[in-house]
């Protein structure tokens, strides 16, 4: 755990330690057999005795609730996953359904009834080119992905059409996950700079809106550069900006 | 003879204008490719393996290169080679493919902008200039690669990736063209050893092999002699020099300096065959 793994590596589950005589395969956490069900996260696949790695990255483990393993990998290309909250761009209106570009291989479909308080009479005001923040209800490799802007209880909980102005740009998926982590330093430091609105989509898209265009662009540049800056460099850059 | 050639292009990353980049990549790949040599005698066809006969290049008559133009505000503004963001907001796109003989191979116009005739003529003039310089770059790169292969220097995809790692030990690297060093080495040193011999020397851990000649623990200040030696070593494996702390003729050339700083930490100078996954350090087999 915490090591770099490459596709093709086979990870042994603790229950099968005895069978492996050569020790070629990597071992998961040296501990007792996990209680309950072990969750196999992104980048891993079940294969026979153990888990097969399908992406290169760092192996992570979460001990809570039966344990979960996944591979922390970096990529720019998004693959729709059920339950992900993403930002989509409306490309077409086809009858009762909007087609959204979410950065995947296919456009996603969004029914006009999938908004809070929408009825057949009361249609949402969505134009081509609008930005929508929603989540996937159907997302697998065999079907076209489908999105909704309400959650299971019918409330919008922040989803829906994103307002006018603002700036949409694309970053890598790893940066989004970092920004979405609880108590993310980057967001806290930025919020001390200027007040701004921020929408993060798991498909690598970020929408920012600040009071003036210049402030918006500054935030955009910092977020893009955060990918490659260390914490000190970032603090320096922000200190320079807030000093001005 | 009829050959069937297939060109696959994998897009790893982009910031707009994939058409231009892909066209350059495609034509360079085709120019660089070598196919097996064939001889036909009546009914009998013999295909020679690369070991038997040198592979033969394809016969490329010309090199068409695409250049893209993005239009904004109904043709008022024109941008050559748009980036990703410019592509997303442009009104129209004009792609012109031309070769260095100023022959237009392709024109494609898309989007909602209507163009005037003199605009298209202006674009084609810009294309001619761009294509000329891109073609020259391609020729130079192909020549360099051919020379590097012949003289046993470093070549290949990994070599051409600039070293841009984000590490605490990152140093400013001066771009050193290995090929020039080889030429210099050929001129300067009379006792320049052929690459295969230099290959053998790193295996020996005792300092002061005949080719290197230093034999001292550290020769940090020794610039003149070490220059020659490392120049000779450049033809072989420069990373092998990094592994040897004793043969420290590596200070001068900054590429070697780079390899020295980081891998010294990782490798215990015991295994030159260890492939450290940094671009310039893939072990290079001299042919």
TrEMBL record, chain A:
> What is the annotated localization of this protein?
Cytoplasm; Nucleus, Nucleolus
Task: Name the CDD domains on file.
Answer: KH-I_Rrp40 (cd22526), S1_Rrp40 (cd05790)
> What keywords would UniProt list here?
Acetylation, Cytoplasm, Exosome, Isopeptide bond, Nucleus, RNA-binding, rRNA processing, Ubl conjugation
Give the highest taxon in the source lineage.
Eukaryota
Q: Which residues form the Exosome complex component RRP40 N-terminal domain?
A: 3-74
Domain called K Homology: residue spans? 166-214
Listed InterPro entries: Exosome_RNA_bind1/RRP40/RRP4, KH_dom_type_1, KH_dom_type_1_sf, NA-bd_OB-fold, RRP40_KH-I, RRP40_N, Rrp40_S1
Query: Would I find Cytoplasm among this entry's keywords?
Result: yes
Q: What is its main location?
A: cytoplasm
User: What biological-process GO terms show up in the record?
Assistant: CUT catabolic process; DNA metabolic process; exonucleolytic trimming to generate mature 3'-end of 5.8S rRNA from tricistronic rRNA transcript (SSU-rRNA, 5.8S rRNA, LSU-rRNA); nuclear polyadenylation-dependent rRNA catabolic process; poly(A)-dependent snoRNA 3'-end processing; regulation of gene expression; TRAMP-dependent tRNA surveillance pathway; U4 snRNA 3'-end processing
The GO cellular component terms are: cytoplasmic exosome (RNase complex); nuclear exosome (RNase complex); nucleolus
A GO molecular function assigned to this protein is: RNA binding
Which is one Pfam family of this protein? RRP40_N_mamm
UniProt entry tagged with the keyword Cytoplasm? yes
Family per record: Belongs to the RRP40 family.
* Assembly mode: Component of the RNA exosome core complex (Exo-9), composed of EXOSC1, EXOSC2, EXOSC3, EXOSC4, EXOSC5, EXOSC6, EXOSC7, EXOSC8 and EXOSC9; within the complex interacts with EXOSC5 and EXOSC9. The catalytically inactive RNA exosome core complex (Exo-9) associates with the catalytic subunit EXOSC10/RRP6. Exo-9 may associate with DIS3 to form the nucleolar exosome complex, or DIS3L to form the cytoplasmic exosome complex. Exo-9 is formed by a hexameric base ring consisting of the heterodimers EXOSC4-EXOSC9, EXOSC5-EXOSC8 and EXOSC6-EXOSC7, and a cap ring consisting of EXOSC1, EXOSC2 and EXOSC3.
Q: What is this protein called?
A: Exosome complex component RRP40
Annotated organism of origin: Emberiza fucata
Automatic annotation (TrEMBL), chain B:
Q: Where is this region: Disordered?
A: 207-261
Keyword list (alphabetical) reads: Cytoplasm, rRNA processing
- One GO MF term: mRNA 3'-UTR AU-rich region binding
Please note every region of biased composition (Basic and acidic residues): 244-261
Q: Name one GO cellular component term.
A: cytoplasmic exosome (RNase complex)
Q: Does the keyword Magnesium apply?
A: no
Domain Exoribonuclease phosphorolytic, residue spans? 2-36, 62-126
Q: Name one GO biological process term.
A: U5 snRNA 3'-end processing
Where this protein primarily resides, as one coarse class?
Answer: cytoplasm
**Compositionally biased spans, kind Acidic residues:** 222-238
Report the family membership: Belongs to the RNase PH family.
Protein name as catalogued: EXOS9 protein
Species of provenance? Emberiza fucata
